[in-house]
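Project outcomes to date are best conveyed with an example. Our students and postdoctoral researchers have been running inverse folding experiments weekly, and each run begins with a structure described purely in C-alpha cells. The record below, which covers 374 residues, was selected by the lab manager from last quarter's runs and is presented without edits.
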C-alpha cells in the first residue's frame, strides 16, 4: 500500500509538471453551466491582475460567482482539495472603496459567498476575492479576501455566445438592428429562430421582435430586425434561446443617431393649368449645399381639395440626379383633376429606406378652370 501511494504521488507530480511546462489550458477543461463556460485553473499561480490578464487572453474574465448554483458548480471542481489550502481568484474586489466589493463590470456584489468572518481585510490591503479549496469545511467552497499581489490559482469565465450587435444610422421612426451570434460550443449550430431580439425599458419588460431576414456570416448567424415606434428610454437586447435573466448572456445596444431627412424649403411652382391637369415645378435637393442627409432618391407629390381636406398622393418621380450633379428643375403633371376646383399641392423628398420621407413642403394653391371657361 505504501508503494502504491508513492507511485500515485509520483505520477501526479509528473503530470502536473508536464501541464505546467506546456503553459496552455486545453479547451476540454472549460466546463459549461447555462450560457457560460468556466476554467478552473489549479496549475497556474498568478497575482490578481496577472490572472485577469490571462483570462482576457482566453476571451474571458475572472469568474463572477453570484449565485448558489454557480458557487456549488465551481466548488465541485476543487473537491476534494489536492492539499490543505488553495484559493482561486474570482472577479470581485474592493480596490475603489474599502468594504464595497464590486464585480469587474462595476456592479456591486450582492450575493454572499463569504466564509464566516470574511471579508476582514486582515492586516490591511486585502482587496481581492478568492474561492477556497480546503480540507477545512468551514471555509471550503467559500470566499476570502486577500492581497491582490499574492500568487494564487484562478477561475475564468466567458459566455458561450459571442455577440455582434450593429445598429446603423436609420431614418426617423425606424431602426434596423443586426444581431449576429457565434456559439463557442463545438458542434452546436444556431438556427435563425435561436437568435432573438427584444426591446423595452428593461430586460424583463421587453417585448420580442421577429427577425425580418437571416444569413450566415462566416461562423455567425446574423439576423436582421426592423423596429417601429421606438420610444424614449427603450433598450435593445440581443440574445440566444429564451429571454435571459441578469445572469445569462445577452448583448445590450444603444441607439444610433437618425438621418436628417430633407424638407423642401418652398412649395412647388404652378405652370400650365387646364381643367383636368396642373404642371408643377420645384428645385431638386443639392448635395453639400442643402440641409439634410442624402441622397434624395425621389419625390412624392400630394394634392388636397378644400372639400376633402385629406391629402392624397398624386404620384412619385425619381430624383434623376446623378453623382456629381448639383441641381435640376423637377417637373410633374397632376392629371384627372376636376374642373372648377381649388387644389393645394405639396411635395416631399424621399431618401432610401423605411421612414425616408421628409415633411411635405409648403403648399401652392391652384384652381382648375371650368370647362366653359376653358
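After processing, the design step wrote out the following sequence:
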Amino acid at each position: 500500500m505504501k508503494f502504491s501511494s508513492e507511485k500515485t504521488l509520483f505520477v501526479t507530480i509528473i503530470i502536473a509538471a508536464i501541464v505546467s511546462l506546456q503553459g496552455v489550458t486545453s479547451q476540454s477543461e472549460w466546463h459549461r453551466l447555462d450560457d457560460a463556460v468556466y476554467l478552473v485553473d489549479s496549475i497556474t499561480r498568478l497575482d490578481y491582475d496577472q490572472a485577469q490578464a490571462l483570462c482576457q487572453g482566453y476571451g474571458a474574465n475572472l469568474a463572477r460567482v453570484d449565485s448558489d448554483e454557480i458557487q456549488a458548480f465551481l466548488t465541485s471542481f476543487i473537491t476534494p482539495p489536492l492539499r490543505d489550502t488553495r484559493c482561486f481568484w474570482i472577479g470581485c474586489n474592493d480596490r475603489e472603496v474599502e468594504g464595497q466589493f464590486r464585480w469587474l463590470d462595476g456592479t456591486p456584489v450582492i450575493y454572499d459567498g463569504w466564509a464566516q468572518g470574511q471579508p476582514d481585510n486582515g492586516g490591511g490591503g486585502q482587496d481581492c476575492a478568492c474561492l477556497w479549496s480546503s480540507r477545512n469545511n468551514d471555509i471550503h467552497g467559500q470566499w476570502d479576501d486577500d492581497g491582490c499581489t499574492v500568487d494564487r490559482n484562478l477561475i475564468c469565465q466567458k459566455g458561450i455566445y459571442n455577440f455582434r450587435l450593429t445598429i446603423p444610422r436609420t431614418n426617423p421612426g425606424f431602426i434596423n438592428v443586426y444581431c449576429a451570434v457565434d456559439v463557442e460550443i463545438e458542434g452546436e449550430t444556431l438556427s435563425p429562430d435561436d437568435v432573438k431580439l427584444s426591446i423595452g425599458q428593461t430586460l424583463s419588460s421587453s417585448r420580442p421582435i421577429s427577425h425580418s431576414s437571416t444569413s450566415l456570416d462566416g461562423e455567425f448567424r446574423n439576423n436582421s430586425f426592423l423596429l417601429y415606434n421606438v420610444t424614449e428610454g427603450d433598450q435593445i437586447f440581443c440574445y440566444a434561446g429564451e429571454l435571459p435573466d441578469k445572469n445569462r448572456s445577452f448583448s445590450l445596444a444603444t441607439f444610433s443617431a437618425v438621418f436628417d431627412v430633407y424638407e423642401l424649403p418652398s412649395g412647388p411652382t404652378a405652370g400650365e393649368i387646364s381643367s383636368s391637369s396642373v404642371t408643377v415645378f420645384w428645385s431638386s435637393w443639392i448635395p453639400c449645399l442643402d440641409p439634410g442627409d442624402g441622397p434624395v432618391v425621389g419625390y412624392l407629390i400630394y394634392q388636397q381639395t378644400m372639400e376633402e381636406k385629406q391629402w392624397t398622393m398624386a404620384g412619385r418621380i425619381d430624383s434623376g440626379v446623378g453623382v456629381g450633379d448639383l441641381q435640376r428643375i423637377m417637373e410633374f403633371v397632376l392629371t384627372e383633376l376636376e374642373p372648377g376646383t381649388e387644389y393645394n399641392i405639396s411635395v416631399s423628398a424621399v431618401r432610401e429606406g423605411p421612414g425616408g420621407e421628409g415633411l411635405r413642403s409648403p403648399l401652392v394653391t391652384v384652381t382648375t378652370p371650368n370647362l366653359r371657361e376653358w
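The longest strand covers residues 36-46. The mean pLDDT is 83. The training component of this project remains on track.
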